[in-house]
Fold this sequence. Notes:
The protein is mostly helical. Helices cover 43% and strands 7% of the residues. It has two domains: 68-287, Aldehyde Ferredoxin Oxidoreductase Protein, subunit A, domain 2, CATH 1.10.569.10; 296-480, Aldehyde Ferredoxin Oxidoreductase Protein, subunit A, domain 3 (Orthogonal Bundle), CATH 1.10.599.
Amino acid sequence: xxxxxxxxxxxxxxxxxxxxxxxxxxxxxxxxxxxxxxxxxxxxxxxxxxxxxxxxxxxxxxxxxxxxxxxxxxxxxxxxxxxxxxxxxxxxxxxxxxxxxxxxxxxxxxxxxxxxxxxxxxxxxxxxxxxxxxxxxxxxxxxxxxxxxxxxxxxxxxxxxxxxxxxxxxxxxxxxxxxxxxxxxxxxxxxxxxxxxxxxxxxxxxxxxxxxxxxxxxxxxxxxxxxxxxxxxxxxxxxxxxxxxxxxxxxxxxxxxxxxxxxxxxxxxxxxxxxxxxxxxxxxxxxxxxxxxxxxxxxxxxxxxxxxxxxxxxxxxxxxxxxxxxxxxxxxxxxxxxxxxxxxxxxxxxxxxxxxxxxxxxxxxxxxxxxxxxxxxxxxxxxxxxxxxxxxxxxxxxxxxxxxxxxxxxxxxxxxxxxxxxxxxxxxxxxxxxxxxxxxxxxxxxxxxxxxxxxxxxxxxxxxxxxxxxxxxxxxxxxxx
Length: 481
Ligand code: SF4
């Protein structure tokens, strides 16, 4: 699914389209048709007692969502404004998520300030990014960025949308690449091929780590490693060595993945299948075979739990977005290393995030607008009588149904775990060596399941299904798999 520079590449929608020989579904509304709403007055943004006006007031004061002149970070720097904060709290991924240790001076080359002021900070002879603010339809937050890259002669090298925070994290700093114009070009290329930059970047990071292991090995190579070298061919001679910190190879490998050429054919399968082919599945930074985004789980246990529990795999949106609770949630702030109470924080974030997805609004709006404000807006459109509790119940039904679907596809509680390195290799968080403890997370899993009315294997209980109005799913064969 694509909206010019924005392509929905995660979660397999493209694969589903492909399996059905479906190229596109175009939505083209008839502009002469007026969408009827149940309560025009409630929807009138000038009506100070109406719910739309109240929601707009919250957007206008929210730390992330307010206007640029009031230092709203999304409006002034786009989503890349998150990079500095995420790095300050040692959450920012590095070198295929082996640690979170960056030099501040490197991050300052690729953060929101760097993008906003790139024309002023670019060195002589370097490409310059010119930035224009943009927005999705009717959104006051205005976090989108249209960018144009020009060379030192002022000639346009390339242009497109982005780069967003996740793209800079996965196609940049997770590869130890701190070159904003190069990351922007990699982003445009991925957009043109319709590839998700999180999955693409994470798969390239696994490729780089595997190459480093194989090339630096002093022992006999395994059959899988020999196969890797065979598939790799003379890539390094043509395009440069794929090592962390080297950037020569980046555009070439993206082009090969997009076209399915050379080793790009195997990278195009995603990091899990790629790493499994060569006998190194532990290098794939995935949950349920989907690549993790930019926040390191060791620095935020609530985010770690959300990644684990997400029904579609490693995802900060579907499973709950809590990393930012460590530093920008006002009275709702929640320390990244806290254990007691974390399963409930994660469960609540999962339900809220799912409700926001069901409503179909951007997650950034939910930094300011709560479900209590969204429910009356929906009522004003549809004539329903919903409240925030109804929306949370819809979300509970949704994730329970997804869970039953996953169970039917053979997933078990054993799939609700992060890659091994997060339990085995510590990283420095606020000066302390930190990792996720398997014992602690095992207890948190049970508390999370219990809070949703699922049994200790993560299967929705009959009473839960009955309470959610899903009796028809009780006593089916997949419940016992
Ligand atoms: S809808 Fe979301 S992504 Fe689009 S401009 Fe608004 S805040 Fe940004």
